[in-house]
Each structure stands twice: as C-alpha cells, then as structure tokens.
Amino acid sequence: VPGELAECLKLKELNLKGNKLNDNRLNKLVNQCRTKQVLDYVKQHCKKSTSPATQSGKNKKKGSKTSEDDKLAEEVEALTHQLQVMRVPDESRVVKITDHVKTVRAHIVCCIVRNLVFTEENFKKFIQLQTKLHEGICEKRNAATLATHDLDLIAPGDLTYTAKPPEEIKLRPLNRVKDYTAAALFHRLQTEADNLRREKKRNVYSGIHKYLYLIEGKPLFPCLLDGANQVISFPPITNSDITKMSVNSRNMFVEVTSATSQKIC
What we know:
2 domains, 3-stranded antiparallel sheet, globular, B3/B4 tRNA-binding domain-containing protein, B3/B4_tRNA-bd, Phe-tRNA-ligase_IIc_bsu
C-alpha cells in the first residue's frame, strides 16, 4: 500500500478488502473496516512510492532555497534538539524502569515544571496544545504519547514505569468516576467506539477511542505507578483522574513515552 494514501486527510471510507497484503497487522485492520486506524498505520509503516524524477520536478516548481534559508533551518534544527543538562538534588524522585516494559513501550522521558500560573483562558490553550502535539509531532500517538500530571497530587516517592497483564492494572481513568482494570477499560472503550460508529454511520472513531488499536491484542500493557503503587498513567490511552491537571495546578509532572524511539520523546 503506497504511503501517499495517508495524505488523503478527507478520506472517510477506505475498502482494501480482498487485496493480498503481506503485512498481517494491516490486513487485520483492513478486515475490521477501521479506516482511521488503517490510514494511521499506512503513514507509520508504508513507504511512499514517489520517484526521484517526480520529486525533482516538485523541487523545481517550488524553487531552490537560498543558502541563508538552509543555514537558518540548520540552526533551528540544532536548537530544537539541544539539551542543557543540570544537576538535580540527590533527594529528587526518580523513575525506575522495569525489564517488563522494555519489550512493550521501552522509551520514556520525564520532567517537572514548577511555578505555573494558569487562567481559564490559557488553561484551555494548554489542553489544546497537547492535542496538537499528539496530532502532529507525536503522529497521532503512533510515535509518542504525552501525559501531564499535577505534581502535587502524585504520592511521594519514586515512580515506576512497568508493564503488566491488563487484568492486573487498575486505575481511575481521566474524567471517569470509578476504577477500572485496563482490560475492562479497553473493552468499555471498544464498546463505546462501536456504538458511536453505528450511531454516526461512519467508520471513523474519535477521542481516545481511535487509539485502541495501538494496544489491541498485546499481553502486557504499559503503566506508570506512583510511590503508593497507584497507576497514574496508562499510555498511550489515558492518564489517571487522581493526578488530573486543573486551572489551580502550580507544579506539573510531564511524561512522554514511545514504543519506537527515545529521540522522539
């Protein structure tokens, strides 16, 4: 399947059934009629078929960039990936990574942001920014997932990033009023997604429902535990409601996880 297919952003339905596909995962998504997930998978895993000659023609139409533009772009790229490593106090909490998660979703980067001042207006923009990051650089959570927590609501002590069977992970999902196991939450979200799809009469999922395929069928699910062994994050699906950010939050714990690359984090 050509990678250019993923660039058809307004495509609502895609029927690839009957085609001989070598990729078993893609074939499964196709047979489940999940257009959104198929396009996401194609974008992530299928190469584009654009020939060098065609690409050259496109470049001529656009016009060659000046050397100054190229130099500026290189400087911006360098600054984007520049890190200033600072020593932290020995008593600072750490994130322990277990061997179990290394075969599931191995990569994680965390940081703490202090002395935030939110208003109703800029808090809405803060939430919108997370959505834009997930849709953009995070490639619809295929490349990475960003989660933010109110640091002052996280239990004291070191955190643990691990992976467990879905039945052994228990959390109160974001904006939910009761606790679920990860297995029960997955099935609940899947049912909600199917009901919504039938109601809208479209093969397109919305919200966190569209990310379920990222963990479907996996024997272990990743999770982040606080010092009291409570699950505060279930990437790439949701955070826990117990550490939910609000307009009153002053200190923030940020986690970025990925199944593909430490660099993207």
